[in-house]
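[agent] plan:
  1. take the single chain provided in the ticket
  2. run structure prediction with default settings
  3. attach structure tokens to the ticket
  4. add a short note for the reviewer (M.T.)
[agent] executing step 1
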Amino acid sequence: MENVDATFVGERLIIEETGAPLEKLRLEAFSPPQPAAGQVLVRMLAAPVNPADLNFIEGTYGVKPQLPATPGVEGCGVVELSDAADYQPGDRVIFLRRAATWASHTLVAADALFKLPSAIDPLQAAMLKVNPATAWRLLHGFGKPEAGAWIVQNAGNSAVGRCVIQLARQLGIRTLSLVRRPELLEELQLLGGDVVLVDDEAGLVAAKAALGGATAALAFNAVGGDSALRLMNLLREGGTHITFGAMARRPLTVPNGLLIFRDIQLRGLWVTRWIEHAPDAEVRAVYADLAARVAAGSLVQPVDSTHPLAAFPAALARLTAADRAGKVLFAP
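[agent] step 2 finished; step 3 output follows
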């Protein structure tokens, strides 16, 4: 194994205390460390800015940072140095566990890596860990709907929502997606959404009409509040309502009748927990399937912009831009 060039200086974003991301993040130069036995040094190609990353910086995520810390729950990189038999320099990889990806280089244990097809787009690969896997688990982890069955979801234009639409179409499952803005309807229909409606009370009426008396087996909630309740009203008896996000920052309020007379099942999904607790072979089989779809171009997430690490203020500003059209990524 070669050694790290002692003269090389990398860079990374770090926080020394939790709080507002723009206030707490700073760029730091560092010397990438030498891999020890079973470790791999990865040169980062791209890493997205996810809501979970912002929550991590704020100290509100499910995993608290050990300070000082470099954020980044996912990303794509190339093996630069390896002291692990399964990985060689030049292998393109993603990270199955949080790996401090907002950096030019990151050192990880080899068992935290997943090897990618060599021809995969690094920007799409960088977004593979979280959103496609969440969509896959939503469609498979709570009783897979039969072909032709309906699922309903809110935040249909979110990254997860778009992945659900694409995967469901490939699996023969029909989707009804609710979105906040009418200008999104045609775009998601072209992506493969069977029915796309505005997420309001009129949309609920239209959704019931579009289902034509049918009801959904599963509902995927990323919003909360009234939007989550609208999904519950589209579920079949004994149907399952899965919450995986809380964009509205409002709790679920469930009428007693939906539980007593309809036996609606309320569940939650945090894909990190699945990665940590599912059998390793199962996790890797799912990612192999998803990586093949991404490499083939049949599972795509839109990219808004890429930024060097030093331009993190501009990257954070894009997150709230009215014209943002996809994911924001760091490309060190």
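[agent] step 4 note for reviewer: Residues 203 and 322 are 23 Å apart (CA to CA).
[agent] ticket updated
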